[in-house]
Design a protein that fits this description.
The chain is an all-alpha fold. The protein contains 12 helices and 2 strands. The radius of gyration is 17 Å and the shape is globular.
Length: 196
């Protein structure tokens, strides 16, 4: 029943409304209580103007209504509060949050009864959504490794999640430059494969 309700909310026109309603009523405790720790958790970085929950809701609302994408968007930062550290200037950092969030998403989805293929897709999308500085230093070998890690069949969904994540941040222009560079590297990779 919890899985059915969650799926219906995630595939609705504006999933954030349903998620916020579950939080308000306390029903979220029976479905994904881990979301409670995101509410009010300020990120303390110039890259975010929302708390973790509101950023997550912006990402969920901006991605197409495909269940794996919406679920990955919902869980992509689920472990951010667990990874928080502050530097000497008080600026927040979340080292390894993508890896910990992927592991946490796997546990949550198993508990809710999703099948192994679905869990694997969401796990990979969450694990590789964080591309900080990837395009400034990535070479052909690096893009090959990235695509192999994500899986060619998931690469378009991966880009959609990355774009949605970037759109949930204040500096959309700078963020989209990173996405455009990554998209171009992937396009070149695919072209090379066709020509081989």
């Amino acid at each position: 029943m919890c899985k059915k309700i969650l799926n219906e909310i995630l595939l609705s026109h504006k999933p954030s409304e349903g998620i916020y309603k579950l939080l308000e009523t306390g029903q979220i405790k029976q479905i994904i209580p881990e979301l409670l720790k995101l509410k009010g958790f300020e990120q303390r970085t110039p890259y975010h103007d929302k708390d973790v929950l509101d950023h997550t809701m912006a990402v969920v609302d901006s991605i197409e209504p495909k269940l794996t994408l919406r679920m990955a968007a919902l869980l992509h930062d689920i472990s951010k509060p667990d990874c928080f550290t502050a530097d000497e200037k008080g600026r927040g950092h979340f080292y390894g949050h993508h890896i910990k969030s992927a592991k946490e998403s796997e546990k949550i989805l198993k508990r809710l009864g999703y099948d192994d293929d679905f869990i694997s897709d969401v796990y990979i999308l969450v694990k590789y959504h964080y591309i900080k500085d990837i395009t400034s230093s990535i070479k052909e070998k690096g893009i090959n490794k990235f695509i192999e890690s994500v899986g060619e069949h998931r690469i378009d969904d991966m880009l959609k999640l990355i774009v949605a994540d970037m759109m949930g941040k204040p500096d959309n222009k700078g963020n989209m430059d990173v996405v455009n560079k990554l998209s171009e590297l992937i396009r070149q990779y695919r072209q090379k494969k066709i020509n081989e």
